[in-house]
Design brief:
Blueprint (H helix, E strand, L loop, with lengths): L1 E5 L7 E6 L4 E7 L3 H4 L11 H12 L5 H7 L13 E5 L11 E3 L3 E3 L12 E7 L2 E10 L4 E3 L9 E4 L1 E5 L2 E2 L5 H6 L11 H7 L7 H14 L6 E9 L4 E8 L1 H10 L2 E9 L4 E7 L2 E7 L10 E6 L15 E5 L4
Parallel strand pairs: 1-19
Antiparallel strand pairs: 1-2, 2-14, 3-18, 4-16, 4-18, 5-6, 5-10, 7-8, 7-10, 8-9, 11-12, 11-15, 13-14, 13-15, 16-17
Length: 330
Amino acid sequence: MEIRIKAEGSFPWQVRVLIPREELQGAILSFPHFDALNRGTGVVRYRGQKVRRKTWEEVSKYKVFLEEHLRFHGLIGPDGKPRRRFIALGARNLGNNLGYLAFLKGKGLFYLEDEPKLGISSYTCFFWGPNGFGIGDFSVDFKEGRISRQGETEGYDFVVSGLPLVKGGEPVDIQGEEFLRKCTDVRHIFYFTLQEEEELFQGYPNEMGGFLGRLLGLFVKGHTRAWYVHSGVGITEGGDLLILQAPGTLEEVAGLAKGEGARDFIVLDNGGSCFLYAPLNPDSTTFLNQSPKWRRPTVALLAFLLQGELPSNHDGYIAGGEKRYAGDRG
């Protein structure tokens, strides 16, 4: 495994982790309140500030501290010390925002109540199961509660969708209709005043045509673009796992992911909830990266389990990994 960290001045760090396929032993989608949030509203960002605040407070009841996720799955002990090698990142769009769904073996399909209204033809997802892992397009039957890839509905431990930035080795057109249907938290594309955002979402999600037209119009007008930290996972041409967290516009992060060798790459988290967490040494775990004003509780996270034992010394960075710094860490 190779870890590369780049920091310049006071900017958020850019972190890239490349994990060879053979080093991966397992993966976990931790989603403790799957049932309580399933078919719920999520955070409703499109019906005014009062509704947004009320639904945000409701979803916040089901956000769990990072350490609780890790203890529940046996990755750290009651004392906080790591029990094995792993690396974890947030999947916080899940359960919060429309455009994101998941499947958990033994639980079924998760989506928010307005999701079918978006008219998304397929969801780009990271999947893990006995037959392997990867990123692919899944179709969803909301009435039957089924998710399938190339007609296959079995053989998945979990499936989690993300916002696709790279597909087939090329950046996705973020002005494409299918992409804009999925990018429901449009703050990650443009900067808005509250009034501008409310005007954009008039009739949403029941009148998707009008919403998409207004959103495309902002590109034409050269509306001010948003700059956020984005976090996600990708698959390289060789089938290895890429984890990337970086600040910038969506196009800039897509370019970075492609430059790091991603054949496919999806975003799972944005803004102040992004983090990357792993064992530092036998006695503690630490953040490889953490967004400014990081929000500690999270609805869901992904953890990748790595081959090998924790080292017996205290010289490791991420137990067994290689670190490289570039730029000014100050």
